[in-house]
Please model this.
Amino acid sequence: MKDKKYAHRLLLQNVSLSYGAMPVLQHLNLTVHSGEFVVIVGPSGCGKTTILNLLSGHIKPGLGVISREGVVRTVYQQDGLFPWLTVSENISMGLRSLKDAVQREKELQSLFDLIHLEDFKNHYPHELSGGMRQRAELARALAGDSDILLMDEPFSALDYQTRLRMRYELVRLLEKRPRTVVFVTHDIEEAAQLADRVLVLSKRPTTILQELQISAPKPRDLTDNEVINAMKEILERLGILKENIV
Amino acid sequence: MASFNAEETLASVKKKQAATYKGNRWRVFVLPVIVFFIIILIWYCLVHFNIFPSYAMPSPGAVVKSFREDIMSGNLLNDMVASLWRVAVGFILSAVLGIPVGLWLGQHITARQAFLPLLNFARFLSPLAWIPFAILWFHIGDKPAVFLIFMATFFPLALAVMSAVATIPAIYFRVAKDYNYKGFELITKVTFPAVLPQIITALRVSYGISWIVIVAAEMVGCQDGLGYGIWEARNGLRLDSAACYMIVIGLLGMGIDRFLLQFSKIPKVRWGYER
Model:
């Protein structure tokens, strides 16, 4: 387990980016505090994934400053596990920085206890269901010395009920192993159930339309009042309510 | 936390696959045997009705007889060993050089741009076109045959590996970066296993090419080998012996391909064929 005391923050300062002549982001400011769960929602093509790519360092901003304090790992929508490695070998990737083999084995075991995939240790990813794969990928990202998780629509390739379950699973895992999380999704329910703070983005060029704090304790049920109110507010901001459309 | 009934679905899928397999198993053996006997029958008819002159159309019986002679004299075994050895050397040489070259070209776009036209040019050059050079450079024996096999398989193999590497999903490299795979380790732990299923397929294809080329190569540059055996038979108008060599070439080729096929069943590469 981690016991680093200093903050693992993410910082975007006045970041701008354009693809050719098309501005994608303009003067974006964002601070993600240590231990915070920030969800970014917005219409498709609004640059959600672009922000994640900037945070992970995969792309460089045209202008502005990005700072990362801590080890950053990304959880993808699907196919993030290496198909040539077993579940156990995949999760062990996250423990590569541990030098001591005994400790590594112990840590691996505790991760398996955490995600309840013991029986599938020696299976390959293609032999698992989508939900199991995402749980394994989560375990890998949580393993060892990670500080910050970037999640790129991690549940959107799953069927609806599995998705609902995975939200509770994620809350439970983060309770055991707290991390700073930036979670990108188009799923408003997901945002309302999981977020400490929701950022609603506009269409291109992307700006933050609204910041919404949700302070209700987690786990939250989909039918909790706070969740429903948050969803209503997000939908209003996105203009997807009947008075805007019908 | 429940595990979403995943065990159940997995088990039922496997059971279903097993059932289909069992039902089809007898056919896999019986149908080819039927086809085999039909071919023999047609062959008998061709001989019986003298469609071709008898010196140009050996009967099945004559071929069996010459089989016995060729085995007894030790020629057949000697020729088999000679051919297998040449194929093995040429094939391994081109794998040992072609796979790394393919990996390298796949990763470096500049190198790819520089060498791709040359590789494509060489790929379309029939290896038999190299025969005059092979003989003048390497004279008679194993060397020209090995050289021809190398020329025939190196280019398609390097190209297949190259395009496999170039099409590795970008996500694997992004994950690799998150988990600190760099340099040589990136190649051995990410790039190579990611293309291994395609490499195995490419090796099977190249082996097929080398087995075809060896027959032609031995007709001109060798004093033994299965190809030489056929050439000898032609010179002596012993088409029964030629047919017997042809059967051996086909069977050996099939057998070794079955052997190579086993590599696609290792757990580390199965994902590449089952997805």
